[in-house]
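Internal tracking record. Fields below are filled automatically when a chain is submitted to the structure queue. Please do not edit lines marked as system-generated. If the sequence contains nonstandard residues, flag them in the REMARKS field before resubmitting.
Queue: standard
Priority: normal
Entity type: single polypeptide chain
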Amino acid sequence: MAFFSPIFSSRSRRSTGRLACRATHVASAIALLSATGLAAQGLTDITITDTAPSQVSGFGDVPLRQAPFSAVTIDRQTLQDIGAQRVSDALRLHASVADSYNSPAYWDSLSVRGYTLDNRYNYRREGLPISAETMIGMDNKERIELFKGTSGIQAGTSAPGGLVNYVVKRPPSAQNTTVRDVSASFGPGHSSSIALDLGGRFGQDQALGYRFNAAYENLDPYIRNTEGHRHLFALAMDWRLTPDSRLEWEIERSERQQMGVNAYSLLANATDPLNGVPSLPATVDGQRNITRQVWSVPGVFAGTTGSLRFKQNLDGGWLWTTQYGAQRLRTDDRLSYAFGCTTPSGDWVGDKYCSNGGFDLYDYRSDNERRSSDALQSELHGSAQLAGLRHHLGLSIMRSRLLDRPSAMQAYNWAGTGNIDGTSDSPEAQPTPGDLNTQRSEYTTEIALRDRIELSAQTALWLGLRHTRLNRASERTDGSRAVQDVRSFNTPWLALTHQITPAYLVYGSYGEGIETDVAPNRSRYTNAGQALPALRSEQFEIGVKGQWARTRWQASWFDITRPVAGDEGACDEANTCTRKIDGQARHRGLELSAGLTQAQWQWDIATTWTDAKRQAAEIDPSVNGQRALNVPRMSLRAMGQYRFAGVPGLRSSLRLNHEGTRRVTEDGVIQLPAWTTLDLATHYDTRIHGTRTQWTLAIDNLADRRYWRESPKQYGHYYLYAGAPRTLRVAVKASF
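SYSTEM-GENERATED OUTPUT FOLLOWS
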């Protein structure tokens, strides 16, 4: 449950049922590749790096093979290999990550371990909180870090699935090292892009460093009538003030304009002809934009984000870091939107389209939405000998602010009808604003203490505690329905690791996370405007990791419980509805992964089994024991790669992506079938007249499989997103 209940939400795509928003690496430690073997061949194909996501975990640069949690680092080379243009492109390599109402032309919406990440609270940039309610470019990103599970030790409030952190490209660290890269690509569809990456050092003793990135893409993807364009400019610099002091700063500006894409849906009264039970509609090729009209206008996602950081080495090996981050977003949220339908008899169907594929079409526009976030954090890290034991300590304090300031009014107007076959009866736009928006303010103070205690040479105890003080407020743009939530809470985290041998590690951990909810300030609620008790999620995790020179593997089991808030009562008249905590969602699962590097071959495989169910519900006890909607029971990611000894620099890979059945409706009568796709890619590193070039030819969905990719239910409506058809991508990168 996100903090903001319906009273905190405007009738926008992100917050109510009015609009559809969108949407191999292997698990953490086992995906580590043999760096020695790769270096011998002069290649840099490292899928997952051997450094823990320290900006996320807060426990310093502890290698993943020694860390008591499941985490993933997807590096720059892998992002380049797969042509990642958004975080969902990268994280889809992970078996525990799935789409969760993830529209192709909107910001990313993902789930980890079956829980949907909150775009306001589950994302970081350089370790500082940002809003992911925008399109974030990947051209200047060095790597993506994913911490899986309840994240109370990393964030004051967040959904329990995990935490994503973006790390930007930095200036070269070595003297006399320069970066001079130009890259271009074509596909998928007819999209084309060009990018520039420059870096180096200058000044006395080369104390100043810079990294400049620029990119432009003409968007014409495989989904027809979704054209647009995007660009990005980014600059990162550092200044080595003294041998013990460094100043770092970076800023990026990006903008993306693109026509929106609407989801498909279940069809009313659709049944299987063999048994007469409700059924899915036939799969489609995924290339049709079913709601595009001549009057449709593109959505616009623009943002400026930056940070300033000072690092100072202190006596005794201690490090003091203070950093400030800011983000300014502007969005014109627009979509020709299909929602429900009116039957020939005049009846309204709100959760599906009509049996003939027809739907009601709305003109939605919320222009000039402004979001601002600021965070100031100071940290102190070091080690000390206390009570005969070595303690690795960390103390941090952060003050953050998040402001949402949309325009006063938005448009959500009926504009005719349409059909999934692409036909429509919608002669003109209906852009006149007529609905109020909602503005929000949030101020948070967080203090965190972490301690890694070396109980012996093989055993360590990990302790963490975060204290959060928050002040949140919301009101409609006319000042009505005001709500405020002021509270404090603590979130602990602890773990134990034991190194059985240099190659084997076992661990167990326990952590808590917090989300908040408030009853809407409306007359129908008996507790209008009142805050519910904190929604405190809990996670238990145990795991074992193994790593040798060429082989690595990991097994982890997790058990996450998350309270669920709901409305009890008729909720149709004054004082007939009560907002309350109604049981919990419990997700248990097993993650297995393994990898092998042998001669010219590299093999990686990862799988996740998830048992996600409701329990202890009182408002509607029939939901107890039901599987969560849109959560695959099993996911599998695998990759095989071969390096051609006879042609140095040539390598080919085949990736397998499999997701098991998902429940579409609560009763389980309609389920999304399992699907499997294959992606083929060939990469060739060579030199042309002394210039190093990297060529890529990739074919995704090699067999051109038609399938329904995901089946989210949002705001009372059942959606279906089609999988991408077979697509081709060609890319080249030249390093001068």
